[in-house]
């Protein structure tokens, strides 16, 4: 984050807070724009965990994410004078769409600064809601600095992506729905970037059900909360690297940091491989399209189900994913889950040798995707050949069974991952 104030009214916000009453008061404003999203039981995660797991499907929300909730409240409460100057926001895509839709509903001009390379569907959807999109090099924090400067120069109101009481109150309405839809929930898990959603949900849930455990989940490559909580103040990450652009925030907000510190029980991280596996499973097992950021909580539960107590509510915070990225992530997830198997198999260089080896692969039930020969290598004997295989399997146990079968039949096998 820049060292300067993150929004014009930041000094007044330093001691501000959000209450259950604020969230309840925000609900009618949210309902004018956003949907009450469905809660469905996850057969996949319930099987993995051994206790009931429910999915709060904000990926099915208008604009494809929870962000429209906070934007609806913030923009609805602007004065006539503030509306006349328009609004400005900084976003990798989800907040942009929420601001654009809410501004459109009220007839307010909107400008959004997005990082270069932001997902094309998010950019097009933002423009489709009537907002002007301007690109900036760098991270979300660089875009936020540009948006702050734009607000100072033009008089537009900065709609901060997370560090604002109205924004947090709007996001907190999701927590009200969670308590109503799963009244016996023991744990609620929330994907986390800047902390607006986590803070709002935590206030709502803890105020109504103090016994419920609140867990925030961040991508390991963009996890600003753990070091900040350890230090006792918001810290800026020196760098970030994650496909989960929706939760790639380099520094918690002042308001959201205090709310997370006060109301949240645990903050954990997940790897890129965990995110890939979860996204693949949600698409394949639950028939739900979810972006990497939106799958973070599901990934955490799938990795360590014994760490939590059920029933669990997993928030799927968004579903705006570029189709090209979706294809890459699914392939990455399949590789991480050993659905793809890359082998180097050494066999006798004799007529019919390749056919006999491939017959064993077929008998093991694997599908051959690619075959390549290598006859020249210092590690090979004169009468040997290396065959590089890319196979499709049914997962880890099946992959090991394929390798075992080849070795049992005398082939030297190296697993290339």
Automatic annotation (TrEMBL):
GO terms for biological process: isoleucine biosynthetic process; L-serine catabolic process; L-threonine catabolic process. GO terms for molecular function: L-serine ammonia-lyase activity; threonine deaminase activity. Its EC number is 4.3.1.19. Its cofactor is pyridoxal 5'-phosphate. It comes from the Bacteria. Residues 35-318 form the Tryptophan synthase beta chain-like PALP domain. Keywords: Lyase, Pyridoxal phosphate. Coiled coil: none annotated. The keyword Lyase applies. The keyword Translocase does not apply. Belongs to the serine/threonine dehydratase family. This is threonine ammonia-lyase.
